[in-house]
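Researcher: Here's the sequence for the chain we discussed earlier.
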Amino acid sequence: MSGGGERKEVALRPDFNRRIKLDFQGASLSSDAGFLLFRETDERFGILEGIGDALADPRFPSHTKHSIVQMIRQRIYQIAAGYEDCNDADLLRIDPALRLALGKDAEFGASQSMLSRLENDILGNAEGLKALDEATLRAADALIKKKWKYRFILDVDSTDDPTHGKQEGSEYNGHFKSDCFHPLFAFSGDGDALAGVLRPGKVHSADDTLDLIKPLVDRYRKRFQFFGFGATPLSPSPRFTITARANE
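Model: Thanks. This is the structure I predict for it:
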């Protein structure tokens, strides 16, 4: 307690940059201080740290102001904060909390045009999608490791993503009665996202399921005792089963 009787608040300092101090006492300078929490989580579990090593950078180094990792972080952090439209970058790039989360300090983040080129030229190919898939799995691994459950459920679901234009792959789906994409997702039994694939709207629910779950089975089979789909361990030891179920 202070001499005036008010409670003293303990300042918070994120591990990724101890110079940052959060005391909730000053003026409102950021539209969303949650950007700092995203970076702290990212840093603690190494989700995006190595993603730049897996991607080729076609830009000239002398013309480069933002690293690939910084731009990927900016795009993902914006989406996580509810700013899904890439155009929001032109305003958010000056936000002090986002700049600190990106390691930019006094420098601005990337503009909308730069993030659009990132999505189209660097991430919009097989190499880029694979790097993003690995980042998704690193995030899921951190959650799965902490839960220590006796059974691991691999839940495979398809759903509709309605379209309102002539996007490539948009097709009419009789089950959903709309023009849409028909993506396929894999989750853990607790709803942790593991993988996903964007498919044309008219494909069957089961299409691409084996291709989606095979690398997941291989990944978690290395970590846990594997009994096969639907099998039950013979002892109460902390082993895991993997069960797959597909829903319409």
